[in-house]
Specification:
The structure holds 2 protein chains of 2 kinds.
Chain A: H1 8-15, E1 30-49, H2 61-67, E2 71-79, E3 82-87, H3 91-94, H4 98-117, E4 121-126, E5 130-131, E6 135-136, H5 140-150, H6 161-169, E7 176-182, H7 188-199, E8 203-210, H8 213-216, E9 223-229, E10 235-240, H9 242-266, E11 269-273, H10 279-289
Parallel strand pairs in A: 3-4, 3-7, 7-8, 8-11
Antiparallel strand pairs in A: 1-2, 4-5, 4-6, 9-10
Helix pairs in contact in A: 4-5, 6-7
Chain B: H1 2-8, H2 14-37, E1 39-42, H3 46-55, H4 65-89, E2 92-97, H5 115-129, E3 135-140, E4 146-147, H6 155-164, H7 174-184, E5 189-194, H8 202-206, E6 216-219, E7 231-238, E8 247-253, E9 259-267, E10 280-286, E11 291-296, E12 305-312, E13 328-332, E14 340-344, H9 348-351, E15 361-364, H10 366-371, H11 374-377, E16 382-385, E17 397-400, E18 409-412, E19 420-421, E20 442-444, E21 450-455, E22 460-466, E23 471-475, H12 487-502, E24 520-522, E25 540-542, E26 558-560, H13 564-567, H14 586-621
Parallel strand pairs in B: 2-3, 2-5, 5-6, 14-15, 14-16, 16-17, 17-23
Antiparallel strand pairs in B: 3-4, 7-8, 8-11, 9-10, 9-12, 12-13, 13-26, 18-20, 19-21, 21-22, 22-23, 24-25
Helix pairs in contact in B: 1-4, 2-4, 4-14, 5-6
The chains are: A alpha/beta, B alpha/beta.
């Protein structure tokens, strides 16, 4: 999964975009985001009494003229942002629809590309498989791509994604934004456990759901078959008719509504996309609508 | 093809139906394996498990509707195969063609062709409607049942055999023929093509090993109301007075109008053909529905066959004779071959037996007879004349005019005219008892087992015993010599007695009161006159108890080829069809049902294939 999978045209379009947090965070260096740190900047933040050693250029002489007291103007400092990209690599993301996995990695690479272009710090976390250090600079996306390419997916163990995710959350040490890319095809209780843990890290969280054709409709009408769970290898003998397929769709939509309600109540941005949308549409439409991308 | 396979395997209809549960179980296993065989990897069972839990237990085998569709197809195919097998097994058909005299009748006055040709045509049509796998056997019914094609032959063989059959000029034995065919138990259907309803007894149709088989009778007749007039020669007999006085021909009209014609007598030429110039002819008018006896006076030569012919005038088409075969009769006056003994106190000259029986009679005095070896006394044609043994012999015997005081005589008779006689008894065949008087007769003692044949007011005049050890006849009047007006009658009676007494225990021989129509009697004759009576070899002869034909043994007196029942075309009742018009026969229904099943199965198969294609397209799209 190389960065070359994103075409130059796509990369040029991504360069025009910026990723913004809905809240302000402390950064670790100069950047394009207004941070909580007061200091040099453009955006006025507050006044404080002049203290010895302050730069006289920051004294608000107008206030002094009215109050005969010296006040210094404070500004919001522009700093970089730390972003954590969580990518679900469970078997359900990779099987049987390989496009779904490819699309998810492209989305992760696109986000890391946009973040690295605006000098933000990026860490890629593939629970149970890969955890990169927080990286910054133009090479970030290439290093992430290389890390993903080096993973022997066949040798990866199919463990509980939620447990692994919670384990990865322990490595989050700095506030920032978090983007969780997954199909979220597990119970709402597990989703809540995952994101409650993540919310405790003081992060601006966006949940990006990637759904393939098999996720929406895994059942073929008028055929009896043996279904095999891509994650557990469990088998089920099934025979589906039109009514049962409709019933499955109701269950699926109910799950989707549950996700939306939870994320909405938790202040987590949530959007859903499929490989059919395309990576450009993902950034220009879905991610823009939730306010992650501008 | 399926039917052929099933037929070659001898498969019954029950086998395909019985195999259906086996096939159904196999199909269920196939579906179970198929459902396991097609593996579809799904991303996760998260929702699926919940869905399955709601719908049904995951471990349960859930058979799709296509399984039930294919099960239905299987059932329909089994039914079709069973129907074909049933049909195939049911195609053992016996075709019985009535070849009796009446089948020679013309279809109508205005219509060309004969009833028999129409019957053959109908039979050919029916054979054509049968399945090619049918096993058809063709029979003709007259004079006796005769198989005309190989047993279980193909329809084409049956058609060829049917084309070779011609109607005879003999009597009807259809009921007996059908009963015999039913008893064979080889046929599922018996199709009878005739011009009249056979008189079937319940025993005749229920004796079949296959159970009761109701013959399907197809009647072929001229339309009701059409004229079917016919004048038949109802009999020919020698005129009273002996062989030199000529014949008496009985003409019977089966017509609703008067008939005019000519009765003529033809003789055989040296080249063995009938002379076209009659030696005697006479114009006759026969009233509608009446009988008339025509005396044909001419000098008869012993041993010479005569042909008596009735020619109707053809000027009136409505009175045209519908059946020409009963317009002729034959007569041969011959004494035949005899070899019998008479034990009598009288001499041959006194009895005058030599002339009518051509000297084949040997006379014995009682003393001479006692001197004979015992073997010469057993099973011989022996007539005790004027004598009576002290005990009735156990071997066949004829006692004529036993003396008073003997064990078989009760008393002397005072009357001369008989009052009762069993005219149907073979002993009295062609004997007109009513025309005789019996002076000096004896009233006989009727011993146990004896049957009275002729009775006087005082008692029995002639008795017969049909004991198993041997038959016996006691005649209580003088039989010899054969003279005067009673010569023919008495000589006929003597011949009948000798035949009856010497008849073996073979059923159907001229010896019982229950001779059946068409029952076969084997005899032989060196007299080539038989050849002119329709029997080329003179060996297989049939006896008809109805008036007309008498062919039996070594001798015959008067012969006519007609049969009153056969000739009477007008007397045939209107017959219902074997099945209502427009209604298909049973086997046709079976065959149609089989085809219906087959077409239904094909339709379902096409539907199933389309559904399979649709599913494949859906899978491809998915």
């Amino acid at each position: 999964v190389a960065i070359e999978s994103l075409s130059p045209e796509t990369l040029r379009q991504l360069e025009l975009l910026t990723i913004r947090a809905r809240r302000r965070f402390h950064g670790l260096g100069d950047g394009g985001h207004v941070s909580l740190r007061k200091g040099h900047g453009i955006e006025f933040a507050d006044y404080r009494s002049y203290e010895l050693g302050d730069d006289p250029r920051h004294i608000d002489w107008g206030v002094y003229a009215r109050s005969e007291r010296l006040y210094v103007k404070q500004f919001r400092e522009d700093q970089n942002l730390t972003a954590y990209l969580f990518l679900d690599s469970s078997a359900s993301m990779r099987n049987p629809d390989v496009q779904k996995w490819s699309y998810a990695t492209q989305a992760a690479q696109g986000l890391s590309y946009v973040l690295s272009m605006q000098q933000d710090r990026v860490a890629m976390m593939v629970p149970g498989v890969l955890t990169t250090p927080v990286m910054q600079g133009p090479k970030t996306v290439h290093r992430i791509s290389k890390c993903l390419m080096d993973v022997d997916w066949a040798a990866t163990q199919s463990e509980d994604f939620v447990l692994q995710f919670e384990r990865e959350c322990g490595r989050v040490t700095f506030p920032g934004i978090a983007v969780v890319i997954s199909d979220f095809l597990f119970g709402l209780d597990k989703v809540q456990a995952m994101f409650d843990r993540l919310r405790a890290k003081n992060l601006d969280i966006t949940a990006l759901q990637i759904l393939g054709g098999f996720d929406v409709n895994p059942l073929v009408v008028e055929e009896s078959f043996q279904a095999v769970d891509a994650e557990t290898g469990e088998q089920l003998d099934l025979c589906i008719d039109a009514n049962e397929q409709e019933r499955y769709q109701e269950l699926f939509q109910s799950h989707q509504r549950g996700l939306q309600e939870y994320f909405g109540a938790s202040g987590i941005s949530f959007t859903s996309s499929s490989p059919a949308d395309g990576i450009v549409s993902l950034f220009l439409n879905q991610l823009t609508q939730v306010g992650l991308v501008r | 093809m399926i039917g052929g396979i099933l037929a070659s395997m001898g498969v019954g209809w029950w086998l395909p139906l019985g195999l259906f549960p086996v096939f159904g179980f196999g199909l269920a296993l196939l579906y179970r394996n198929r459902s396991k065989g097609v593996r579809r990897v799904v991303p996760t069972f998260f929702l699926l498990r919940e869905f399955v839990t709601e719908a049904k237990s995951p471990s349960a085998i859930r058979l799709p509707w296509r399984f039930f569709l294919e099960l239905l197809i299987l059932l329909v195919l089994c039914c079709a195969a069973a129907g074909i097998a049933f049909d195939t097994k049911g195609k053992s058909v016996a075709i019985v063609l009535d070849t009796s005299l009446s089948m020679n009748a013309r279809k109508s006055v205005t219509q060309a062709g004969f009833v028999f040709d129409e019957a053959k045509k109908r039979a050919l049509e029916h054979i054509g409607e049968l399945d090619v796998l049918s096993q058809v056997t063709v029979f003709s019914s007259a004079p006796v049942l005769k198989q005309r094609s190989a047993e279980g032959g193909t329809p084409s063989e049956a058609k060829a055999a049917l084309a070779r059959i011609e109607a005879t000029v003999l009597g009807d034995s259809l009921s007996l023929a059908i009963g015999e065919i039913a008893q064979r138990g080889l046929y599922d259907r018996i199709l009878v093509f005739t011009d009249r309803q056979p008189e079937l007894t319940s025993a005749q149709v229920s004796l079949s090993p296959k159970g009761a088989i109701r013959p399907e009778v197809m009647t072929v007749r001229a339309p009701q109301g059409a004229s079917r007039s016919n004048v038949a020669l109802g009999g020919v007999s020698s005129s009273s007075g002996g062989e030199a006085k000529g014949l008496t021909a009985k003409l019977i009209s089966y017509s609703d109008s008067n008939s005019n014609g000519t009765v003529s007598v033809q003789t055989l030429s040296k080249s063995r053909v009938w002379n076209t110039t009659p030696m005697f002819s006479e114009r006759v008018k026969v009233e509608a529905g009446q009988q008339v006896d025509i005396k044909l006076s001419f000098a008869m030569d012993p041993g010479q066959p005569y042909r008596i012919v009735w020619d109707s005038d053809t000027s009136n088409p409505s009175a045209q004779d519908m059946l020409s075969q009963d317009d002729e009769a034959f007569f041969v006056f011959t004494s035949g071959d005899h070899d019998w003994k008479v034990v009598s106190a009288f001499s041959d000259k006194q009895l005058n037996l030599t002339k009518p029986f051509e000297g084949r009679v040997r006379f014995f005095t009682p003393d001479e007879f006692d001197a004979l070896a015992p073997s010469a006394k057993v099973d011989s044609k022996i007539v005790f004349h004027g004598l009576a043994p002290k005990e009735l012999p156990k071997t066949p015997y004829v006692i004529v005019n036993p003396p008073l005081g003997s064990a078989v005589v009760a008393s002397a008779a005072s009357s001369q005219i008989p009052v009762t006689w069993d005219s149907a008894h073979p002993l009295l065949s062609y004997v007109d008892i009513g025309a005789l008087k019996f002076p000096d007769a004896r009233v006989l003692t009727t011993h146990p087992g004896m049957e009275e044949i002729i009775g006087l007011p005082e008692g029995a005049l002639m008795v017969a015993s049909d004991a198993q050890m041997g038959r016996g006849i006691v005649v209580g009047f003088e039989l010899f010599p054969f003279e005067g007006a009673t010569a023919v009658t008495k000589s006929t009676l003597l011949l009948n007695m000798l035949k009856w007494v010497n008849a073996s225990a073979v059923p159907g021989s001229l010896g019982g009161n229950n001779l059946l129509v068409g029952q076969r009697i084997d005899g032989s004759s060196s007299n080539d006159a038989f050849r002119y009576l329709g029997f080329d070899d003179g060996k297989p002869l049939a006896t008809l108890t109805r008036g007309g034909l008498l062919t039996r043994g070594d001798e015959f007196k008067a012969v006519s080829l007609i049969n009153s029942v056969e000739s009477n075309l007008m007397a045939q009742p209107a017959l219902p069809r074997a099945y209502p018009t427009g209604q298909k026969r049973k086997t046709d229904d079976n065959r149609s049902l089989s085809w219906l099943f087959a077409f239904f199965a094909i339709g379902l198969l096409i539907f199933d294939a389309l559904m399979q294609l649709r599913s494949s397209l859906r899978r491809t799209a998915a």
